[in-house]
Automatic annotation (TrEMBL), chain A:
Protein's name in the database: Phosphoribosylformylglycinamidine synthase subunit PurL
Ranges where the Phosphoribosylformylglycinamidine synthase linker domain occurs: 21-59
Binding site for ATP: Y58, K97, D497, G534
EC number: 6.3.5.3
NCBIfam families: FGAM_synth_II (TIGR01736), PRK01213.1 (NF002290)
Active site (catalytic residues): H55, H101 (proton acceptor)
Record localization: Cytoplasm
Domain PurM-like N-terminal as annotated: residue spans: 80-194, 440-559
Pfam families: AIRS, AIRS_C, FGAR-AT_linker
Residue stretches making up the PurM-like C-terminal domain: 208-361, 573-709
TrEMBL record, chains B, D:
Family that this chain belongs to: Belongs to the PurS family.
A UniProt-annotated Pfam family: PurS
GO cellular component, one term: cytoplasm
Name of the protein described by the UniProt record: Phosphoribosylformylglycinamidine synthase subunit PurS
Pathway the protein takes part in: Purine metabolism; IMP biosynthesis via de novo pathway; 5-amino-1-(5-phospho-D-ribosyl)imidazole from N(2)-formyl-N(1)-(5-phospho-D-ribosyl)glycinamide: step 1/2
Catalytic reactions of this protein: N(2)-formyl-N(1)-(5-phospho-beta-D-ribosyl)glycinamide + L-glutamine + ATP + H2O = 2-formamido-N(1)-(5-O-phospho-beta-D-ribosyl)acetamidine + L-glutamate + ADP + phosphate + H(+)
GO molecular function: ATP binding; phosphoribosylformylglycinamidine synthase activity
Enzyme class: ligase
Described function: Part of the phosphoribosylformylglycinamidine synthase complex involved in the purines biosynthetic pathway. Catalyzes the ATP-dependent conversion of formylglycinamide ribonucleotide (FGAR) and glutamine to yield formylglycinamidine ribonucleotide (FGAM) and glutamate. The FGAM synthase complex is composed of three subunits. PurQ produces an ammonia molecule by converting glutamine to glutamate. PurL transfers the ammonia molecule to FGAR to form FGAM in an ATP-dependent manner.
Keyword Zinc attributed: no
Database matches in InterPro entries: PurS (IPR003850), PurS-like_sf (IPR036604)
Species of the source: Methyloligella halotolerans
TrEMBL record, chain C:
EC annotation from Swiss-Prot or TrEMBL: 6.3.5.3, 3.5.1.2
Subunit structure comment from the entry: Part of the FGAM synthase complex composed of 1 PurL, 1 PurQ and 2 PurS subunits.
Lineage: Bacteria, Pseudomonadati, Pseudomonadota, Alphaproteobacteria, Hyphomicrobiales
Pathway annotation: Purine metabolism; IMP biosynthesis via de novo pathway; 5-amino-1-(5-phospho-D-ribosyl)imidazole from N(2)-formyl-N(1)-(5-phospho-D-ribosyl)glycinamide: step 1/2
Organism: Methyloligella halotolerans
MF-aspect GO terms: ATP binding; glutaminase activity; phosphoribosylformylglycinamidine synthase activity
Entry protein name: Phosphoribosylformylglycinamidine synthase subunit PurQ
Membrane is among the record's keywords: no
Pfam family, one: GATase_5
Catalysis performed (reactions): N(2)-formyl-N(1)-(5-phospho-beta-D-ribosyl)glycinamide + L-glutamine + ATP + H2O = 2-formamido-N(1)-(5-O-phospho-beta-D-ribosyl)acetamidine + L-glutamate + ADP + phosphate + H(+); L-glutamine + H2O = L-glutamate + NH4(+)
Compartments where located: Cytoplasm
């Protein structure tokens, strides 16, 4: 079947509305016509539209993403495959990626979030890795918005049900509430897997005449146009797009995982690719394109769940839990036996060819015959116009509230600083019995099974900083992620990202994107923290109002020996707290500013990457040589919030007596200056630590002494931990219960 | 009045539960079984005796809470207490 | 001690069970695929946690009808120790080897966290390494762990001392706050009359090593090793 | 034939889902709502056209798998294809 002897039965002309509905611009359509020398069939139009959608083609972002640093001695696989791969030594490697499922989660939070988690895990096990840790980065609208509670509840249970059923621990994440996400929530899911570095599977279908095999679930009419939907701006009519929601089946995915890993242990797979966005179309195009071959599919062979599915529907279906593989010839029976054992569909649906064409046959007709070069590499690339944002002028001083401790108490009971326990307790974070740092700390850590090496994972971005200044904000996101990994004692290795932005056709949005990429690039270079995989989600806006630029960063680090891991919980009375790094008292765009003035304005804190590196390397050294008994980086809410989190985690109070110099107390305790860590050290070690810091040219200041059951500071009445804990722990459960009692 | 509400997945929507039950029934020897679909059944006592108002109330409940109308349909019967 | 771990489609704590059994007994257990007709000779059969068949229909329901379960039931009736953890407990109630059912948690949410358990007795093969009445920490991770039985069954279970573990507060109190899922009488684990079958919602295999945050779970396995040796 | 099976909890058996739905309905302003019980609804196509044999088959399915008869009751309707 390698020759397409039949002709395509193309229509004379396609209606303009149909072309527009497929999200193709008149120019893009003209390109297709020219490429084909004729009008495309409906199936061809569908195929081109999904391949050229923003989601699959990265047409607005590609030229910028290319500027990111992606190399390093630790990098085994950079961007371009289903996930990135970094070296963990001893032949072990970590595979990871983050992906967005924003639009589907807004429309149907449970299924949208669940299928997002399913999709990212497939990306990871497609590479031959067993997923060992999931993370999730969530941005919801304001708690007061009428939809927020429903969205939180659905998204969290969707993520939980899928990951829990798969038996992959969800070891952390982040959660923000901000009115700027009211109409466009963000659900970014990350997965980390482990494999042996000489057993990495890729997607290229190298070789002609090879069987193309479909495995997993059957194809239904799920999510047709999902990929184009993910690239379309919302409007009030988007409720109409509802039936495109996909339903996840984590049980089938668990079987698919086990079946794929079992087959991967044999030497029969040439290329493998999961069917994600744009399902069969994008998986087969990518495999053929990367392998430099043509591909021909016989859709009569595709396992279908519904009757009378057309070629168009099969090619665009986004049914979940499916994979495409190219096998060594003759290996089909061996592979089929494994998939049958796991009660999954298995079908040879096509063959690789030497024609360089993408040929789709169905019921005796040729439904599509397209040059592969036009679909993948030939997809449009735009250098969209962009304008830089006006620099923010610092508004007047942020006013001070009464006392730091009473401010702290109030702050710890706000939606953004409160405990996220209500969320992470719905996620099985211990399954696989290798979770050595559970959610609630700076980074989650899982052991490499059977060793004492640990893989640390953290997800970070501070959208309010990015809204103030996308360049500094993106730098900060990378730096905070690096810092969180450092705080547990890990060597940060590399990142994945999820670039969530508004409509790139608006120059100011494109300007934010460009600034964020530049900021990320600068930070990644300075911290030797390259980008190995990622995802872009654009058009996150409703009725012309965009989300704040949200470049979510997911980082992975290595702890050579988990016995030398650090944690934020204060561990011994009498230890002394020391802040490493300079405290300048930057309050613009801070949680304190938001709380005291109801506004977020001004420039975000700037990020001095040299200082970050110096402070981080220093603190990591303290952890490795066992000098410190607890470590926490300083981020949202500033120093006092960091100290409070350490106190609550260890259930030990602190008597604070820092010499704050000339800084007003509220700036000292709540400023969000970067490149800082709070460490706890036995009192006998304080002097040496301060001296070592001076040696390393790092500011270090003692803050107080661990002990008791409250936080005390100056003349203010001490704040009992029990009071603080209930404020901190109760906000989210009370909020979520509010729906019942209103 | 008592409302008996049945909530089913819209045609074409994947039903993992139904699929798994079908597999289990086959394994138990019910070979001829096909097209298994699982839904929900909910009984509600409503403090409304006027049939028209009861109807309106049950529909509002289904739309607002009981059914996920993105992927589910619902039907119901009313029965006087 | 030779153990066998039954693997159902959707089991996901089978490897964790294997790890702890290997650590404690020094011998890797036999991993038995649910579809196998043969169950190897074993001193202990473990039904691991997870989501057999996705927990679709009712948790544990479809696994309970797996061909291998006929053999497990026969062995249990003949006195072989059978330990069901989490999903394994649900399978045991579905087969009728243990009374009652595990319903959806009171909160309707999945809950994963460490809980305090009271070890009701230490005169069983599963608990001889514990003190009677000892309060231990073991994690739970489930959505359907809300133990329910009718009054008569409950009275029998209590009367015969079949409760293995109860959810308690730090100080050992049986208050409602310490009950994570709404279980009747705070029941977290249950024996059959003969004492050879134990079903429990908490996961002892997850806290059996200091690096994971505790070792209270290991004593179930050391008890078995001692008893079955 | 098609069987429409309804599975409900026996009276007296705790129903956490029903209770939660009731609470949510109250919160949504459906004040008069009471006694909410959640059950399952399962549709099965059976390859049996004789009504008596179909009946026997459906009952066996329910007893063996679909219902947990310790806590659940079932009822069903048959409909010719
Ligand atoms: N959606 C979530 N899922 C899982 N864990 C979460 C989620 N949101 C927050 N957490 C956990 O709560 C803790 C606090 O989060 P965060 O304040 O973002 O930490 P950091 O400031 O160190 O980045 C972390 O351990 C994080 O993993
Ligand atoms: Mg941190």
């Amino acid at each position: 079947m390698s020759e397409a002897t039949q002709k395509v039965d193309a229509p004379d002309e396609l209606p303009e509305e149909l072309i527009a509905e497929h999200g193709l611009s008149p120019d893009e359509y003209a390109r297709i016509r020219k490429e084909l020398g004729r009008t495309p069939t409906l199936t061809e139009l569908g195929i081109v539209s999904v391949m050229w959608s923003e989601h699959c083609s990265y047409k607005s972002s590609r030229i910028w993403l290319k500027t990111l640093p992606t190399d390093g001695p630790q990098v085994i696989q950079g961007p371009g495959e289903n996930a990135g791969v970094v070296d963990l030594g001893d032949g072990d490697a970590a595979v990871f990626k983050m992906e967005s499922h924003n639009h589907p989660s807004y429309i149907e939070p449970y299924q949208g979030a669940a299928t997002g988690v399913g999709g990212i895990m497939r990306d990871v096990f497609t590479m031959g890795a067993r997923p060992v840790a999931n993370m999730n980065a969530l941005r919801f609208g304001s708690p007061e918005h009428s939809k927020t509670r429903h969205l939180v509840s659905g998204v969290v249970s969707g993520i939980g049900d899928y990951g829990n059923c798969m038996g992959v621990p969800t070891i952390g994440g982040e959660t923000n509430f901000d009115a700027r996400y009211d109409g466009n929530i963000l659900v970014n899911a990350m997965c980390v897997g482990l494999l042996k570095s000489d057993r990495i599977f890729k997607s290229a279908a190298r070789g002609v005449g090879l069987p193309v095999v479909y495995v997993g679930s059957k194809t239904g009419r799920d999510g047709i146009h999902g990929a184009t939907m993910a690239s379309a701006e919302f409007d009030d009519a988007s409720a109409e797009k509802r039936p495109t929601v996909q339903v996840g089946d984590p049980f089938t995915e668990k079987l698919l995982l086990e079946a794929c890993l079992e087959l991967m242990a044999e030497d029969v797979i040439i290329g493998i690719q999961d069917m994600g966005a744009a399902g069969l179309t994008s998986s087969s195009v990518e495999m053929a394109d990367k392998g430099g071959v043509g591909i021909e599919l016989d859709l009569d062979k595709v396992p279908c769940r519904e009757e009378a599915m057309t070629a168009y529907e099969m090619m665009l279906s986004e049914s979940q839990e499916r994979m495409l593989m190219v096998l060594k010839p003759g290996a089909e029976p061996q592979a089929e036996a494994i998939f049958k054992k796991w009660e999954l569909d298995f079908a040879v649906i096509g063959i690789t060819t030497d024609t360089g064409r993408f040929v789709i046959k169905h019921q005796g007709a040729v439904e599509a015959d397209l040059p592969l070069s036009a679909l993948a590499d030939g997809a449009p690339v735009y250098e969209r116009p962009w304008v830089p944002k006006e620099p923010q002028v610092a508004p007047k001083e942020v006013p001070a509230a009464d006392g730091p401790l009473s401010s702290l108490e109030a702050l710890m009971g706000t939606s953004n600083l409160c405990s996220k326990r209500w969320i992470y307790e719905q996620y099985d974070h211990m399954v696989m019995a290798d979770t050595v740092a559970r959610p609630g700390g700076d980074a989650g850590v899982v052991r490499v099974h059977g060793t004492n090496k640990g893989v640390a994972v953290s997800c970070d971005v501070t959208p309010r900083y990015c809204a103030g200044d996308a360049f500094e904000g993106a730098k900060q996101a990378v730096a905070e992620c690096w810092r969180n990994l450092t705080s547990v004692g890990a060597d940060p290795l590399a990142i994945t990202d999820c670039m969530n932005f508004g409509n790139p056709e608006r120059p100011e949005i494109m300007g934010e994107f460009v600034a964020a990429v530049k900021g990320m690039g600068e930070a990644c270079t300075a911290l030797s923290f390259p980008v190995v995989s990622g995802n872009v989600s654009l058009y996150n806006e409703t009725n012309g109002v965009a989300i704040p630029p949200t470049p979510a960063i997911g980082g992975v680090g290595l702890i050579p020996d988990v016995a030398k891991m650090a944690h934020l919980a204060l561990a011994h009375d009498g230890d002394v707290l020391v802040v490493v790094g300079k405290t300048k008292g930057h309050l613009h765009q801070s949680r304190y500013q938001e709380w005291i003035s109801g506004k977020l304005e001004g420039p975000p804190p700037s990020v001095d990457l040299d200082a970050e590196r110096k402070a981080g390397d220093f603190v990591r050294g303290l952890i490795r040589d066992g000098t410190v008994t607890a470590v926490h980086d300083v981020s949202d809410g500033g120093l006092l919030v960091a100290i409070a989190e350490m106190a609550l985690a260890g259930d030990r109070g602190v008597a604070l007596d820092a010499d704050i110099g000339d800084l007003p107390a509220h700036r000292f305790w709540f400023g969000e200056d970067q490149a800082r860590y709070v460490v706890a050290v036995p009192s006998t070690g304080v002097e040496a630590l301060i001296a070592a810091a001076a040696e390393a040219d790092l500011p270090a200041l003692t803050l107080g002494t661990v002990g008791g059951d409250s936080l005390s500071l100056g003349a203010e009445p001490p704040l009992p931990l029990a009071t603080l804990r209930s404020t901190y722990e109760q906000w989210l459960p009370d909020y979520m219960d509010g729906g019942r009692e209103q | 009045m008592k409302a008996r509400i049945t909530i089913t997945l819209k045609p074409g929507v994947l039903d993992p539960q139904g699929k798994a039950i079908e597999g289990a029934l086959h394994a138990l020897g019910f070979g001829g079984v096909d097209d298994v679909r699982q839904g929900k059944y909910i009984e509600v006592e409503i403090g409304e005796s006027d049939p028209d108002r009861a109807k309106a109330e049950v529909e509002r409940m289904c739309e607002e809470l009981l059914a996920n109308t993105v992927i589910e349909n619902y039907s119901y019967e009313l029965e006087a207490a | 001690m030779k153990a066998a771990v039954v693997v159902f489609p959707g089991s996901n704590c089978d490897r964790d069970a294997k790890t702890v059994l290997t650590q404690v007994t020094g011998k890797a257990p036999a991993m038995v695929w649910h579809g196998d007709a043969e169950l190897p000779e074993a001193d202990l059969i473990v039904l691991p946690g997870g989501f057999s068949y996705g927990d679709y229909l009712r948790s544990g329901a479809m696994a309970a009808h797996s061909p291998i379960m006929r053999e497990v039931i026969a062995r249990a009736k003949a006195g072989t120790p059978v330990l069901g953890i989490c999903n394994g407990f649900q399978v045991l109630t579905e087969t009728g080897l243990l009374p009652g059912v595990l319903m959806r948690n009171r909160s309707l949410r999945f809950i994963c966290k460490d809980v305090r358990l009271k070890v009701e007795r230490n005169d069983t093969i599963y608990t001889r390494s514990y003190e009677a009445g000892e309060i231990v920490t073991i994690p739970i991770a489930h959505k359907d762990g809300n133990y329910f039985a009718d009054d008569e069954t409950l009275a029998r279970v209590e009367g015969e001392g079949l409760v293995a573990f109860r959810y308690v507060s730090e100080s050992g109190g049986l208050d409602d706050d310490a009950n994570p899922n709404g279980s009747q009488h705070n029941i977290a684990g249950l024996y059959n009359e003969r004492g050879n079958v134990l079903g429990m919602m908490p996961h002892p295999e997850r806290l059996a090593e200091p690096a994971l945050g505790g070792t209270d779970g290991a004593k179930i396995f050391t008890s078995l090793l001692e008893a079955l040796h």
